[in-house]
User: What shape does this take?
Amino acid sequence: MMSIYLFWRQPSQMVDKKRMKTSDFRWLLSKFVLLYLMVQVTGALRDLKCTTNNLKVWDCSWKAGFESVIDEVCIEDRSYSCHQVEKTNIKIPALPPGDHVMTVKSSHSPANSLSKFILNEKNVSFIPDTPEILSFSADFPTSTLSLEWNDKGSAFPYHVNVTWEIKILRTERRELIKLETYNTNLNGKDRVHQWSWASDLPLECATHYVSIRCYIDYLHFSGHKEWSDWSQMKKIPWSPNSQTKVFPQDKVVLVGSDIIFCCISQSKVLVAQIGSTLCPLIHLDEKNVAIKIRNISVSENSGTNVIFTTDDNVYGTVIFAGYPPDIPQKLNCETHDLKEIVCTWNPGRPTGLVGPRNTNYTLFESFSRKYVTFKRAETFINESYQLFFQILPDQEIYNFTLHAQNPLGKSESAQLVNIMERVSPHTPTSLKVKDINSTAVILSWHLPGNFAQINLLCQIEINKANSKQELQNATIKGAKNADYLIDVNKLNPYTKYTFRIRCSAETFWKWSKWSNAKQHLTKEAIPSKGPDIWREWSSDGRNLVIYWKPLSINDANGKILSYNVSCSSHEETQFLSEVLDPQHKAELPLSKRDCIISVVAKNSAGSSPPSKIPTIEIPNDDLKVEEVVGIGKKILLSWHHNPNMTCDYVIKWCNSSRSEHCLMDWKKVSSNSTETIIESDQFRSGIRYHFFLYGCRNQGYQLLRSIIGYIEELAPIVAPNFTVEDTSSDSILVKWEDIPVEELRGFLRGYLFYFQKGEKDTSKMRGLEPGRSDIKIKNITDISQKTLRIADLQGKTSYRLVLQAYTDGGVGPKKSMFVVTKENSVGLIIAILIPVAVAVIVGVVTSILCYRKREWIKETFYPDIPNPENCKALQFQKSVCEGSNALKTLEMNPCTPNNVEVLETRAAPKIEDTEIISPVAERPEEGSNTEPENHVVVSYCPPIIEEEIPNPVVDEAGGTSQVIYIDVQSMYQPQAKPEEEQDIDPVVGPGYKPQMRLPINSTLEETAAEDDIDKTAGYRPQANVNTWNLVSPDSPRSTDSNSEVVSFGSPCSINSRQFLIPPKDEDSPKSNGAGWSFTNFFQNKPND
Amino acid sequence: MDLRAGDSWGMLACLCTVLWHVPAVPALNRTGDPGPGPSIQKTYDLTRYLEHQLRSLAGTYLNYLGPPFNEPDFNPPRLGAETLPRATVNLEVWRSLNDKLRLTQNYEAYSHLLCYLRGLNRQAATAELRRSLAHFCTSLQGLLGSIAGVMAALGYPLPQPLPGTEPTWAPGPAHSDFLQKMDDFWLLKELQTWLWRSAKDFNRLKKKIQPPAAAVTLHLEAHGF
Assistant: This one.
C-alpha cells in the first residue's frame, strides 16, 4: 500500500492580526498560500482547511478527487476516534495544541486510498460570525446616525478584545464617507452596543447606509485570526417631506463653522446662493444638490438666507450664525430698599442672535432654590440687564448663580452676598428745611424702603455762598418707608444755605444719589459788634463828621436797617441821630467838644454793641512829613512803641492832592502794635497818598506822624518847563520850574540836562542816544536847584538844550530848546587883523628886496632889446629869406611887424563837419587822413595815431589787441533814429558788429556803411568822430575840435573808438560829469 | 424706497388732517348729506398716502429680511402665501365689477392684510421696525374706516366676516423661517398692488359720483414718489 503523507507545514509565520485587519488582499493571499501548503493526496484528497467561529468546534473541509467517497475519518488524539462521514467536511471538537494526525479513508476510490493529515491549532483560522445590526436610526434635526448591534459575547465565556469596524456609505453610489473603528471586549454575556455619528450633510439630503464587521483578538488562540464578513447593509428609512425642500431648516450654528445645505428637488437647481453670494453646486443623487459654506459669518437679525433657484421655483432656508452666550460680567446684586434684590450684569460679547434665539438668563438662588428668568426678544444697545429677586424673610445670605443660555451654549456667573451689606438706598426725596433759631435748622426727608433692621448713615452737604462746602454725617435708626429728621447746628444767622442729602446703610456699601438741593435762609440775629467808626472835624471846626464802615455779612447777622448815633459825656448821653442803612456817615453840630460818640447798628433782631470814639483831638507840634514807598501794592508803616497810647492807633489816609480833610479810609490797630500794613483796592500807582498816624490816649486822638507815599512810583508824565535866562558868547543860564505833584507820580530824584550843538532842523532828526560824544549830560540831583549855567560854549553857535526830570519810577519826557550863543567880537577882530598884518609885512619885505635887487631883476626879466627897424642890414630878399633863414637871421625886412594879430583861419569847423557827415569809424581809409593833432592820446601805452594804421581791415583780421583809453565822456551821444537801427539790424551779416549801433545820419552814410558791411563782415573797429565831439557843452573841447582829446577810463580797441566795456545807458548822463579823469574832475568842480 | 424726512412729516400731517376730518365725513356721522363725494376723495387721498408710506416701510422691512429679499430683481413665484388676498385681477373682470362689489373686495382685502400686518409686527425683532409697522397699521386701520364710511354713504352694507375664515397668524413648526419671510415679502407686495388697485377704484368711483362744488377736497401732492 502506497501512502503519501502530506503534512501540514507550519506557515513561515503567523499571519499578523493587524495586517489582516488592514488589508483584505493580504488576507486572501495568505489564505492562498495556506491552501497551497496543505497536504493532499494527488488525485485523491486535497485542500484540507479548518476554521472555527467560536474556538470550540473546528470545521475542517477538503476537496476530494473524482468519485472519491470518504468512509471514515480518524483523528489521533489522546484517544483515537473515528467518524463516518459522507461529505467533504467534518466538524470536530477543538483539539488541544500540538500536532494531531487525521486519517481519511476513502473506500470507494479506485486506489482505496488512505490519506493522512497533520492537524494543528496553528493551522486553524478563527473567523467570527458576521455581526447583526439591531437598529440603524437617524436624528434628522441633529443629522446624527445611531447604530445598535449585539456583540454575542455569550459565545465566548472569557475576556476577549473585539474590534468593530463600521462603515457609512452615502448616496446611491454608495460612496464611503466614514470608516470607524470601535473597540470593546466580550465578557461572556450578550451586550448591545451603540455608536452614533453626526453627519455634516443633512441626513435628508441623501440615503445613508451602514455596515459592520468584527475582529476578535483571543490571545490564547495560536491559529489564524480573521475579520468577520461585513454585515448586511442597512439604510435610513427616509421619505422626504413634500413641503420642505432645503435642509437644514432654521438651524443655529456657531460663527466660523462649516455647514452644508442641500436642496431636494425634482427639477434642476440652477443657482444656489447664501445672502447675495452665489455658491458652487455639489451634486448628490438625482437632481439633488448641496452647497458647502465655510467659515460662516455672524447673521443679521432675521438670519442669513440660503436660496436654491430652480426653473420654476425658489426654495430656501434661513441659518442663524451666532455665538454662545458670554460669561455674564460684572454681576452685582444689591438692594435699594431691602424689599427686593436687583442683580445687574453685562452680557459681554453680543451673540448675534435675537428673537427666540436670544440668550435666556435665569437667576437662581441656591439656598431658597428659587429663580427668576430674564427673557427679551430684542437686544438693545446699552441695555441694562437686570433681574429682581424678592428678599426672603429671615434670609440674609444669598448665593446667586446667573445662567445664560442660547441654542449654541450656556454660561454662568455666581455671586454670594450678604444683602444687609449690600444696601444702596434710593435717592432721598421731599427734602425740607425748618428753622429752629438763627443758627440751627431741622432737615427732613423721605426714604422709601424697609430699613427697620438697620441703621442708616446719611450725609448732609451744606453749601454757603463764597464758602467751602461742608459735609456732616449722621447715623439714624432705619424705619419702614419713613420720613427722617435731623437737626443741623452751628449755622450762621441770616445766611443762605443750600442743603442736600444722601444716605447709605451703616455698613457702608454705596451712597444713594444726592437728593435735590434745598435752599434756605437762616433767621436774623443781632449784629455781633458795632461798626468801625472814625470822626473828623469839619474844616470850620464846628461840625463833627462821624464815619463808620458797614458791618460785614458775618457781623451784621441780618439786614442792617439803621444806625443810631449818640454822644455821651460824664453827665449824660445825648441821642444825636438815626441814620438809615445805605448812609455810613453823619455830620453833626456838636455843642460839646468833649464827648464820646457811640454808634449802634440795628437790624430786625436788635441792636449791636455800641462802637465808641472820643471827639477830642490832642495837638502835636512836633510833626514832620515823611516819605514812604509801597512794596507790592502795600504800604508798610511802623512806629515806635508809645506807652502813652492806651487805646489804639488809627491810620487814616487820603489822596494828597485832595483837600486836607479828605478821608479815603482808616484802619485801627491795637495799642501794642508797632507796625501795620495798609492795603486798599483804591490805591493806584503813581498817586501820592497822605497817611496820618493817630494815637489814642486820654480819651482823645493825637496825630503822631504825617507821611506821604506812593504805592508804586512812576516816571513823571511831563517835563519841567525851563527857560533861558541869560546867554553870552560862551555860556547859557537855564532856569526851570517845579513839576506839579499829580504829574510827578513819584518822589522827584533829580533832573537830567543835555546840551549839544545843533540846528533846529537837523537836531530833530537825531535822538539823544547816550554815549554820543557831542552830547553833554549833566545830572542834577539837588532837586532844590532850579537854575543851571552852562559854560565853555562856542560863540554864535546854536545849541540844543534838553531837560527831563526823573523819579525812582523812571525818567520823564524830554523838553528841548534851541539857543544860539552870542558872537565873540574879540576873536573876530583878531581874525581880521592878523592876515592884514601878515600881508603888510610880506609886501614891505618884498618891496625892500625888489628895491635892493632891482638891477638883477631888470637884467633877468626885462633886458634891453635893440630895435630892428633901426638896423638896415637886415633887409634881405624874400627868396633868400625862405631858402636859408638860418644864415640870414639878422637880415630881417623892415616889414617885420611889431605886433602880429593872428586871425583864426583854420578850417576846424569844416573838419568837424566832415567828421560828422563821414564818420571816421566807418571809413578807416579816410580816417588815416585825419589830422593827427586832433587826437593826441595821453595814455600809459605809446601814443598811437590813426595815421599809423595802414590797413585797418588787416588789423581787424589780425585781431589787434592793443588798447587805448579815450575820454569816457566821448562815448555817449544821443543815438539818432533807434527804430531805423533796429530795421537795419536784420540786414547785417553774421558776426559781431557793434559799430552798426552807431548813429548814421544820412543816406549816404548808410550806403557807405552798407558797403563796409559787405566788405567786412566781422568786427570793424572804428571811431565815430561824432562820438568824441558831442561831449558836454560845458566841456572846453566841445567848442574846439583841435583841442587835445585826453582819454582816460574805459579801454577801447586800437582801431576803434568804441569802448570795450560800455557802461549802462542810464549811467550815461552821470558819466558825462563824473568820468574818471582829471579833466573831468576839474570840469566837474564848478558844477559842484 | 427712500422717503425724505420732510416728506414723511408732511405726509403725517396730511394723514392727521384726514383722520381729523374722518368724523366730519357725513357718511359716517350721518348728520348731514353732502353726498359721498368728499369721503371718496379723502379715501383716495389716504390710499395714495399709504402707497408712499408703504414704500418707506417696505424698504426697511426688506432690508431686515436680508438679501436676496431686498434685491430689486428678486421676484420669487407666489407659491406660498396662498391665504393672502390677491389683488391681481383680469381687466375685464375688474371692469365688470360694480361699485358695491369693488368696495366690498377692497374692504375684505384690507381687513385680511391688516390682520397679517399685525402678525408681522409681533414677529419683528427690532423696535424700530415694530414702530414703523405699528404706524402703518394705524394708517391702514384709518383706510379701512374710510372705506367703511364710503360704503355706508353709498348705502352698502359692510361685509360680515365668515366664521372660521378670520386669518390668524400662526407661527409654528410647520412654518419655517424662510417660508415666513416669503410670506412677509408677498404680504408687502400684495399690499402695494392693493393700494394701486384701490387708488384706481376710488378714482373711478370719484369720477362716477361727482362731488358737490363746495366740497372741501384735500389734495395730496404725490408727485415724485
In short: The interface with chain A takes residues 64-69, 71, 76-77, 79, 123, 125-127, 174, 176-178, 181-182 of chain B (CB under 8 Å). The domain at 34-207 of chain B is CATH 1.20.1250.10 (Growth Hormone; Chain: A;).
